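Continued from yesterday's entry.
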Amino acid sequence: MINKNYFLAVSNLINELISNDYITFLKYNIKSGYPDHYILQLENNNNITIDNSIKFFYQNIGSLEIQWNYIKGDENLFGEINIIDLNQFLNLNNDQDYWIRRFNESNDPEQNEFTKSCKPFDYFNSDEIEIAFFLNSNNIINDELYYFKSGFGHSKLNLSINEYFDKLIETKGLVGWQKNLLIGKFEESISIIKSIFN
């Protein structure tokens, strides 16, 4: 496991966004991480095992919300990062129904069963509902991220939490980078970001 300074990376990202004259912040909020003993208590109380990399992340960042607009001439771009709070991630506090509605608009019973194993991590582009999530398999949440988009179902992203976070910072949360990664067009997202920040 690589120990990252997530908080510093997010602070640097916010400073970079603030320093761009064409970026307008709609919202940003960082919640402090959770102590190790609290996460351990959640694991024990809910009979689950969370991968150490995911636990380390949530020890540093409790939740994160950033939304920005870039407007210059005819260009209008949008970025969004919405890292879910640990309690919502675990679907505690009666959040299960909320997430079932997000993952399963048609209320298909089989899809509902699958949704119960989904642990949402990053929820973005709320117009179309896109979610990066982990799976709970036999009460173990492994460090493997998946991607869901309404109308298209889900796919494995082949990213760990550290790899996902690196790409999140690299793209500054530009909407669409996850889909572009899956279809082999990630460089298009990077090109757009380079054009904004050069």
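--- second protein ---
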Amino acid sequence: MENKRSQPNVAYMFRHACAFVDCAEACEREPNHIKVRTASHFLADMTNSCLACEIFIKMLLVNKGCLLNKIHGHELYVLWNKYAKVDVGSSTAIRDRVNGIFQSEEDVFSSLLKKVSNYFLVLRYAYERTQPMEIHQHFLRVFREVLRNYCCKEVYKMSWSEYVANPIMDLVDIL
């Protein structure tokens, strides 16, 4: 049996996922200071967004007592279903928040999460694809932001906007 000490620190996992969000957002803005310009940094944006969501979900699972070495894979839908079994209330709140943003009576969350589930695996090698694929960038970005805000509340007991407004938070995990 693995002891609790060998589990990763959820605050570190949160900040690690946030680093991938930062990369995704930089790609969304495509700043001119990126030295090697391409027509678009869209694929890098989506890949980093997927990785951020994956780490956020794994952080939530670890925070609920799941062992990280028992949490495998990159497919968001599979990881999400594991989390939904562990924390029905929170997973429902997150799903409802995303559905609310899309102002849909239907459960767009579940159907779109299935569609973006393996983006990380597919988009990082997009040049190998021979068939076109549906891209649901708005959903992925919304899911990423809702997850980040919820995870921030779980780890630091404050919203993401409160966290970034508090300069001392950069030092919290270091001290």
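The mean pLDDT is 86. The chain has one domain: 8-172. Will compare against the first tomorrow.
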